[in-house]
Amino acid sequence: MSQTLAIHGGPPVREKPLPANYPGALLMGQEEADAASSVIYAQSPFRFYGESLLYKTEQLEEMMARDLGIPYVLGVTSCTAALVVAMKALGIGYGDKVIVPAVTFIATAGAVISANAVPVFVDVDESMNLDPADLERVMDEDVKAIIAVPLLGAPCDMDPIMAFARKHHLHVIEDVAQSCGVSYKGKPQGAIGDIGVYSFQMNKMLTAGEGGAVATSNMEWFERAVRYHDQGSFRKRLQEKHGLTSDHAEQAFAGQNYRMSEITAAVLVEQWKKLDRVLKPMKASYLRIVESLQERLPGLKLRPSRDIDGDLGANIGMLFETADEAEHFAAALVAERIDCRKLYGGKTVYQFPQILNMRSAERDGFPFNYPFNRSVHYAEGLCPRAEDLLQRMIFVSISPLLTTQDEADIIEGITKVYSGLYTQEMRG
Ligand SMILES: *Cc1c(COP(=O)(O)O)cnc(C)c1O
Predict the structure, then answer these.
(1) What is the pLDDT of residues 298-313, one digit of tens each?
(2) pTM of the model
(3) Is the CB of 264 within 6 Å of ligand 1?
(4) Whole-angstrom Cα distance, residue 21 to residue 13?
(5) Helix, strand or coil for residue 183?
(6) 127 contacts 306 by C-beta, under 8 angstroms
(7) Ligand 1 centroid, distance to 174 Cα (angstroms)
(8) How far apart are CA 41 and CA 65, in angstroms?
(9) Pairing state of beta strands 143-148 and 97-101?
(10) In the structure, what pLDDT confidence band is assigned to residue 424 with cuts at 50, 70 and 90?
(11) Are 76 and 224 spatial neighbours (Cβ–Cβ below 8 Å)?
(12) Interval 34-44: pLDDT, tens
């Protein structure tokens, strides 16, 4: 006997919504408050000088470098900034194309355009991450880099991506914005490609509201990243800290200001210490829920992972036969008070108007006006699998704060809706 679905007027599985999807923010407390006020009481909110500078930004960079197992990390203002800094560090700019997965947050593509290059899109596979088998399709001599994006906590298939990049002499940037802590075959993502970039915006694993970081093992790219993020300069203190010497007159080039504030860094140092407290319960909840779902609903198709050991388990992706089924399922589950959603409103990056219409802030269409040998254009149908999967996959996010009851509710909600929709409606 199945219960009446809430969407059909029955009682919902729960009354209260699940914890909001702000993992780091929900663990904020006294530690972050004390750290931020220590910077304020020290009257030294700028990373390079002040009355009694606490060097919080350096501390964050050291902690990240240690945990990623690489020598160089640079704090910046956001991941969008970090992406631009990474491309400038690698010498990517006007006349270059950069490979971006069709499914990612729009910032990945926007940053390419801000760096004066042009994004070209590759399709995704059922993991919702870049499909290495589609890379060849977009290759030409103008392509200089691949941005691999581990989406919603799930690792990218890095081995074939790195092999392809090495074969074609492409750089690899890992945009780890959504997946701080994710790893592939035992190695943290962000330390596998040439440069890794991180976000500390509110929706990400850890947060100070805003913030970002650039990580690399290459000294030259690090120097260029530092210079680009700080108006072309590479301050003595940072040079000495890393045992580098650089001639300013020879090496300086025009840059931006993407420097991290000490207040941001102070909060992030405390957040970084809590990374395990975010990731461990999240993964444990994910594994328990998935195990139970697989037992109860052998027909339910879940988003596959390219490396379940390194996967954060931050989301449960459910794949349906048709867009209609996914739509019905999502509406019914929301009515049970289990929040779920399609990704990015069901759109690939190139379906957003600013990308589809190739609109930069410039009057003359720069940087899209470059006379590429193989011209770039975006249109519906460009990455058919991404377009299809986005309509058929829905996601329930897993908070680090789920109680046993919350987990049981998620399992019950999905089971109830699945059984209700499939037995009552779809099959009879
Ligand atoms: C959030 C996000 C960004 C942008 O991060 P900000 O810190 O907000 O600039 C970039 N890439 C991906 C994949 C993201 O999810």
Answers:
(1) 999 999 999 999 999 9
(2) 0.97
(3) no
(4) 19
(5) strand
(6) yes
(7) 12
(8) 28
(9) parallel
(10) low
(11) no
(12) 999 999 999 99
Strand blocks (E) in 123-211: 143-148, 171-175, 183-184, 187-188, 195-199
Give the Cα separation of 197 and 150 in Å (integer).
Answer: 11
Asked whether 177 lines ligand 1 (CB < 6 A), one says yes
Active site residue 167: no
Q: In what order do the strands lie in the sheet with 301-302?
A: 301-302, 315-319, 393-397
CA distance 288 to 294: 10
CB atoms under 10 Å from CB of 228, counted, come to 25
Amino acid at site 72? Y
CA distance 244 to 323: 55
SS (HEC) of 41-89: HCCCCCCCCCCCCCCHHHHHHHHHHHHHCCCEEEEECCHHHHHHHHHHH
DSSP SS3 for 404: helix
Alpha-carbon dihedral angle through residues 407, 413, 419, 420, given to the nearest 10 degrees: 170
149 lines ligand 1 (CB under 6 A): yes
- Give the phi and the psi of residue 209 in degrees, each rounded to 5: 90, -55
Point out which residues pair with 259 in neighbouring strands.
Answer: 76
| Least-confidence region, from 69-73, 155-159, 198-202, 423-427 | 423-427
Structure-block tokens of residue 375: 């011209």
Q: Which band of pLDDT confidence, cut at 50, 70 and 90, is reported for residue 2? A: low
% pLDDT > 90, the chain? 97
Nearest CA to ligand 1 atom 1: 177
Q: Is the pLDDT score of 427 beyond 60?
A: no
Are the beta carbons of 129 and 306 closer than 8 angstroms? yes
Residue 3 confidence (pLDDT):
85
Task: Tell me if residue 239 falls in helix, strand or coil.
Answer: helix
Catalytic residue among 56, 88, 204, 347: 204
384-406 average pLDDT score: 98
3-state secondary structure at position 101? strand
Q: What share of the chain has pLDDT > 70, as a percent? A: 98
Q: Among the atoms of ligand 1, which is closest to the Cα of residue 82? A: 9
In a 3-state reduction of DSSP, which class is residue 117? coil
Q: Tokens representing 357?
A: 């219409």
Structure tokens at 204: 């990400």
> Tokens representing 240?
């000495």
**Average pLDDT in the 228-255 region?**
96
Output the CA angle 343-199-261, nearest 5 degrees.
145
State the Cα–Cα distance between residues 300 and 85, nearest whole angstrom. Answer: 42
